[in-house]
Design goal:
The chain is of the alpha/beta class. Helices cover 29% and strands 25% of the residues. It contains 14 helices and 21 strands. The termini are far apart.
């Protein structure tokens, strides 16, 4: 199919992106998924989108009653008055049917007669979009697989040439061994919906376009969410599709000694990993860069998993970083992320929209352990994180990723995952002991963007912000996780004069 082939919207903007423009009109499509995966909601959005474009829509239901469809619509704030509904109801479902609906008894009809009645409704309504819900009931009426297949083929042939776009819904209720694999070959396209319930947290849903004849589409799984107003689809992020030119200059933090560690500061279009034990200053360093960027007028965003937003603001204010004024001026976006309620695809889409809509130049993800909680398998996390960071790099964004290490003192591990290879620069913070005090040290162990210091410096954080001291050359046990300073007192920093 050529690129000039017209498309029609599915009614879901994210799905249209996955389809790279929408559905080819006047074709037969299969939407399959277990009960609760979102098929009915998707079908109603498809028909209501057509109505908004002055296209008539027909919903043929063998499985759900009119009352159930209306309830689904009301839960989303939709009105189905302009939609033609044709219901094949059981005797107990006849009560309460409005005068606009046609009510038939499927057990009194042969399959062929049922198909003819549906065709009569199509001829009477003359719709541009039709939904058939569902093939499971048609399969039961047919009883014989060969007869069922022939009737589906007859439906396809009937709709061919009538300028109608058809969605066939299938709830996959048949036994896996008895499902008709030929159904996929009869349809122009197949969209599969899945619902996964984790051990804790909200149910996660996703879709996959299994086939789409003659049309390029974004393959793989794409997260989706059902909310009031319908389905939201979060297309899988492909970094190569989102490149824009930028100058890869270094950004300052406002603390010259800190920038010197990285040879002038992190470069635009790079990711810096801040790793170390809890409380060693990782988040504070990222906040220093964010605050400096906001002071220069550059939009920034922080996606906070671990710490409450209120606590973060209080802590920043105590260090002389007034983030509140930049939030009020909409120069800084501070977002609390609940991994139990947000899928990875939704988070990636939110970050992408923040970058593209607000023009963010600095992004902080605090922390990677919180991000990991949104994924069930570590390999998926690494692939997802790699694509997200590649996208941010393509946009010229400076990204800071906080990665806590397991343990406070002694031997420490990389935490949940070792993702240092996806970072362009790695800043390591440590506690060390000197003169009976616990102090903090900072060093850079990797910088793909250029040269960096290989020295270890002292890190101090107080009410006036971040300080980085002179190189400390006399350390013992650095690689054990608890370095001990055995040199003279002269390089060590003491408390600042608050009146200075």
């Amino acid at each position: 199919m050529s690129a000039e082939t017209p498309r029609i919207s599915s009614g879901i903007s994210g799905l249209d992106i996955v389809l790279r423009g929408g559905l080819a009109p006047h074709r037969l499509y299969l939407v399959e998924g277990a009960p609760g995966s979102g098929k009915t909601t998707l079908a109603l959005q498809f028909l209501l989108d057509g109505i908004a474009r002055n296209e008539r829509g027909l919903y043929v239901t063998l499985s759900e009653t009119t009352e159930e469809l209306v309830a689904v619509a009301q839960s989303h704030g939709w009105n189905l008055d302009a939609l033609a509904l044709f219901e094949l109801a059981n005797a107990e479902e006849m009560l309460g049917v409005t005068r606009d609906q046609s009510v038939l008894h499927p057990w009194e009809l042969e399959l062929g007669g049922t198909i003819r009645l549906i065709q009569e409704q199509v001829e009477a309504v003359k719709p541009a979009r039709v939904v058939f819900d569902s093939l499971s009931e048609l399969r039961l009426l047919a009883q014989d697989p060969l007869r069922y297949r022939r009737q589906v083929l007859a439906l396809k042939q009937y709709f061919a040439g009538r300028n109608i776009t058809v969605l066939l819904l299938d709830d996959l209720s048949a036994d896996a061994n008895s499902r008709d694999a030929h159904l996929h070959s009869l349809c122009h396209g197949v969209i599969t919906l899945e619902r996964v319930t984790p051990e804790f947290g909200t149910a996660l849903r996703r879709l996959e376009v299994q086939k789409l004849r003659g049309i390029d589409f974004v393959a793989g799984f794409h997260d989706l969410r059902i909310r009031r107003g319908g389905i939201e689809v979060y297309p899988r992020l492909i970094a190569a599709d989102h490149h824009r030119p930028f100058v890869g200059d270094a950004i300052p933090s406002g603390v010259p000694e800190l920038d010197a560690l990285l040879g002038g500061g992190p470069l635009r279009g790079t990711c810096t990993l801040l790793t170390g034990p809890a409380g060693s200053g990782k988040t504070t360093i990222s906040l220093q860069y964010v605050y400096s960027a906001c002071e220069r007028g550059e939009p920034c965003a922080i996606f906070e998993f671990d710490e409450r937003v209120g606590t973060l603001l209080t802590r920043a204010h105590a260090m002389g970083l007034d983030l509140g004024k930049h939030i009020e001026s909409r120069r800084l976006g501070l977002y609390q992320v609940d991994p139990a309620q947000m899928s990875p695809g939704q988070l990636a889409t939110r970050i992408r929209e923040t970058v593209e809509d607000l023009g963010c130049r600095v992004i902080v993800i605090d922390s990677i352990d919180g991000y990991y909680a949104t994924m069930s398998q570590s390999q998926q996390l690494i692939l997802q994180m790699h694509e997200l960071l590649s996208y941010l790099n393509q946009q010229g964004v400076v990204t800071f990723v906080v990665h806590p290490q397991t343990g406070l003192v002694g031997n420490m591990t990389a935490g949940t995952l070792n993702i240092s290879y996806v970072a362009d620069a790695v800043i390591l913070t440590r506690f060390f002991e000197a003169d009976g005090r616990i102090r903090k040290a900072i060093s850079v162990i990797k910088n793909r963007g250029g040269s960096h210091e290989d020295s270890i410096r002292e890190l101090r954080i107080d009410a006036q912000g971040v300080r980085v001291g002179a190189p400390l050359v006399e350390f013992r046990g650095v690689m054990t996780g608890t370095p001990e300073y055995v040199g003279s007192r002269e390089p060590l920093m003491e408390d600042r004069n608050v009146d200075a």
